[in-house]
Amino acid sequence: MPVRAGTPRSFASGISPDGRIVVGYASVEGEDPYLHQALIWREGAVEAVDIPGVDQALLHVNSRGIAIGVSLVDDQVTKFVYQDGRLTRVTGDPAGINEAGEMAGVLNTGQPVYWPSPTAEPVLLPVPDGADGVVALGINDDGVIIGIRSDYDSGHRVETPLLWRASHASVEELPMPTNADSAAALAIAGDWVSGSAFFPEPGMWQEVRWNIKTGAVDVFSDDELAGVGGINSRGHLAGFNGEYHGTLITDDVSVDLPDLAPSANPVNDIISIPSSITDDGLTVVGGSLDSDLNRQAVIWRCR
Fold it and tell me: Which of 74, 252, 265, 294 would suit a FRET pair with 132, their CA atoms being 20 to 30 Å apart?
């Protein structure tokens, strides 16, 4: 994807469901390579978005062009909403946004909340009795929110996937995958939720997909899906496989996403990281290593 001249690294972190807008970041020329400038691509043309602070990025965007951004302000992680060329600082940490502009996340105090609009005050969500910690992480276009409950037992952290229906009046648990003892719901689109679960045998986390309408739970082997970046309303998953190459999983088929530099052979690094997928499942964005092992923003277009 096009970035500013001289930019050594870049990443596309989100694409709007309709595929017209992409957001991400790039390293700043001549400065610390891990300090970033926020970027937005519209119809393929890139522009910089100046967010207060350093280490800037745009993370998520909807089809109306409303994006969630982040930066370090006075050494504090700070979230912003970018809309119509304007930045608004957000109280708390929104982690997901839907097409209407509703957001879900947590306050700095750790309480899960949702925002009815990008400029609205956050509204507290109910939490399970006795939970040590609860976070909200995503919201679909019906207003259904997903998140995680965390509990600690003798220093051992146990996670439970949570769901708030559109009324937000109560919270419920998503089904724990068979033989798993911990699971996390991380993203939602339509009736589909992506996340991961820990299985004592074989002692590892595996990627999981739930359907909140049918109750179906799919568990993926580490070889076919080692990490998920995005999910769409059809349940298609964009992520990387056990060999650290990009992959797209649809209803019944897995599609390899080509690497930017097929010859890249890093040590202990993921070659391609898909981060987000359009609603029609035909466009995926993320990052892939070039021949110098620098990660670059890329877009995959499927037919």
Answer: 74
